[in-house]
Amino acid sequence: MKKYIPLFLLLFFATAAVSVAQSDNISPARKQAIDSLALEKVKDLSKYISIIGSKETQFSEANRVMDRAEELFAPGAEMGVSSLNRKEIAYYKVRRYFERLMALNYDRVNITWYDIHYISDLERQPDGRYVGVVTVYQRFEGTSLESGLNYRDTTKKDITIYVEKKQTQIAGRTIEFWDVMLGDIRVTETSA
């Protein structure tokens, strides 16, 4: 009898692990909601970048928007910066990227994102999170009125999307929910 107890415990824990793993699977309806939330967060980031980069935005407003934009990201995320004038792609922590964007030496800056779509489906990782990739095209236009210099480029960027189950307390009850965080933003190509 004693030799069957470890086998029973092993089967019990294996069954429990499979049950937990299956309960963490995302149903098609939930996945569609998560995809919509991820795309909404990417669109929010697009708006925030446009506001931060605009020379018409007051400093205090730009800082407030930077705080909001940072909340969209997973800790440690980086954003890529490219230029037609150099081959290397520079990567900056999110806050530093926003500060550099705000300090660009142009009189007018216009940044628009378009053609936002998933290029990889959400895939479950060993740690229980799901990871996917969203691609965007960014059109950057900077104008210097004094020198008459104009700079324009279009950059294709891949944004890593993290989806993980989190918990919160509401009225003394623990509620589980799926949350979407943005990860690194990698530059994949830059053109005129």
Strand percentage: 35-45%
- Lateral strand order in the biggest sheet: 3-4-5-6
User: What name is given to the CATH topology?
Assistant: Nuclear Transport Factor 2, Chain: A
Question: What form results from the Cα inertia axes?
Answer: globular
**What string, H for helix and E for strand, traces the elements in order?**
HHHEEHEEEE
**CATH class bucket:** Alpha Beta
Rg over CA atoms, rounded to whole Å, is 22 Å
Pick out the low-confidence regions.
2-23
- Helix % is 25-40%
Q: Class by helix and strand content? A: alpha+beta
Q: Provide a count of the helices.
A: 4
Tell how many strands the DSSP assignment holds: 6
Alpha carbon gap, first and last residue: 75 Å
Mean pLDDT: 88
Short description:
With 192 residues, the protein is α+β, with helices and mostly antiparallel strands. Helix content is 35%, strand content 44%. It has helices at 4-23, 28-53, 59-70, 94-102; strands spanning 78-83, 86-93, 108-124, 130-143, 150-170, 173-191.
Description:
This protein is of the alpha+beta class. The chain has a single domain (26-191), classed as Nuclear Transport Factor 2, Chain: A (Roll), CATH 3.10.450.50. Helices cover 35% and strands 44% of the residues. It contains four helices and six strands; from the N terminus they run αααββαββββ. The strands form two sheets. The chain has a four-stranded antiparallel sheet with strand order 3-4-5-6, covered by helices on one side. Strands 1-2 form a two-stranded antiparallel ribbon. The protein is globular and about 60 Å long. The model is unreliable at 2-23 (pLDDT under 50).
